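User: Here's a structure from my thesis project, written as structure tokens. My advisor, Dr. K., wants to see whether a designed sequence matches the one we expressed. Can you design one independently, without my sequence as a hint?
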């Protein structure tokens, strides 16, 4: 659904001044799972404009028998405790959300009955990982792809965890420990990436009663009791698109403030001077790679490093960032673990429709670039994965949306 359609964007004549950020889906998805395991009500505030990925998690939790009251800017979760999940009547649909799938995949093992989980084509293509073999709870189908059937309980007590591509499997185990009776000992392999997201999981779990620590290799069961009121912070990673807009249009936007501790690695954007050449590590913020590369190209250029794990997102974000930028006549070179970008470049209106490879951050980068030069862009609904209101800021520049192209 998200990948269909073409957006026609014309050159932006009236520069923006006030913009918004969506609620952090990293926070919201985790809090939904924690609230569902709590005995009693948990009110999640600040959810207005929630991403489609967050809605995916919401609907999955509802399918498991958890009642959620929906209001304009809050969701109140009526938690069922660690053992209250019910067998869903229909397959769980994870859509494009890798985070929802990974966290839910482990949580579903607590039910003890078979549960089918599926996703869209993008998630099917990036589904498999040795982690699932080690749990022994998931049945592999043709080509190791979704849909799969998950049936718990988890009986293994020693698990080898490769953290070189993602930290989400560690988060998935931690956030499901309330339903387990015995500890799990971890053998960690690979150089860890996205540690800010792993730290987020441990920090939120601690607020709910967990004594587990990120630096420890044993996860112990804990009683989950989330606070009765939780405020979801804005998603700081989307500041990268507004920084790109500022660089393109030589303006200053009023961007909502995000605390450093809630920025999950995106706080590196707060003090960057794009006018100078620089070397930037994105080990803990791989989602920034595409808009950041575009900003560096317009500014002083430089190198993006420590982001090899970006090859395993919705698309290979290293190679596809190079390809996307080339449609706007912007040059970048892929390296083993990042990009080298020439500075002092200016986007040129593409002569062809711009592909976005089923990746919402590619699409949003293309939209911002098109606000300077105009373009026809594939993936008319992709932004909804993380920022449903994004195109609202370009309303006067969207000439048309062709849903069946």
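Assistant: Designed independently from the structure alone:
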């Amino acid at each position: 659904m998200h990948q269909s359609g073409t957006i026609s964007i014309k050159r932006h004549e009236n520069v923006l001044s006030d913009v918004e950020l969506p609620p952090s889906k990293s926070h919201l998805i985790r809090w939904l799972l924690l609230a569902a395991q709590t005995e009693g009500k948990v009110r999640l505030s600040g959810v207005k404009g929630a991403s489609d990925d967050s809605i995916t998690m919401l609907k999955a939790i509802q399918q498991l028998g958890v009642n959620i009251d929906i209001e304009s800017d809050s969701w109140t979760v009526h938690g069922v405790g660690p053992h209250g999940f019910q067998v869903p009547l229909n397959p769980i649909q994870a859509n494009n959300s890798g985070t929802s799938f990974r966290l839910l995949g482990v949580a579903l093992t607590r039910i003890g009955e078979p549960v089918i989980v599926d996703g869209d084509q993008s998630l099917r293509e990036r589904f498999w990982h040795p982690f699932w073999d080690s749990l022994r709870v998931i049945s592999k189908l043709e080509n190791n792809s979704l849909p799969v059937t998950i049936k718990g309980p988890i009986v293994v007590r020693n698990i080898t965890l490769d953290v070189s591509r993602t930290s989400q499997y560690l988060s998935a185990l931690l956030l499901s420990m309330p339903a387990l009776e015995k500890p799990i000992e971890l053998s960690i392999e690979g150089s860890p990436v996205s540690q800010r997201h792993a730290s987020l999981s441990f920090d939120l779990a601690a607020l709910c009663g967990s004594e587990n620590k990120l630096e420890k290799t044993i996860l112990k069961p804990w009683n989950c009791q989330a606070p009765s009121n939780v405020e979801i912070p804005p998603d700081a990673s989307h500041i990268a698109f507004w920084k790109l807009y500022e660089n393109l249009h030589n303006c200053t936007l009023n961007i909502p403030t995000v605390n450093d501790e809630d920025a999950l690695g995106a706080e590196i954007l707060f003090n960057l001077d794009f006018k100078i050449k620089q070397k930037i590590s994105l080990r803990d913020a791989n989602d920034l790679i595409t808009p950041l590369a575009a900003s560096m190209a317009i500014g002083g250029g430089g190198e993006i490093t420590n982001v090899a794990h970006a090859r395993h997102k919705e698309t290979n974000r290293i190679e596809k960032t190079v390809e996307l930028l080339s449609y706007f006549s912007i040059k970048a070179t892929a390296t083993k673990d990042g990009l080298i970008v020439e500075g002092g470049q200016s986007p040129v209106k593409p002569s062809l429709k711009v592909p976005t490879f089923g990746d919402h951050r590619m699409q949003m980068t293309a939209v911002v670039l098109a606000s300077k030069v105009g373009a026809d862009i594939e993936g008319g609904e992709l932004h909804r994965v993380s920022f449903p209101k994004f195109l609202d800021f370009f309303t006067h520049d969207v000439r048309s949306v062709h849903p069946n192209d």
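When you compare it with your expressed construct, this may help: Residues 355 and 378 are 5 Å apart (CA to CA).
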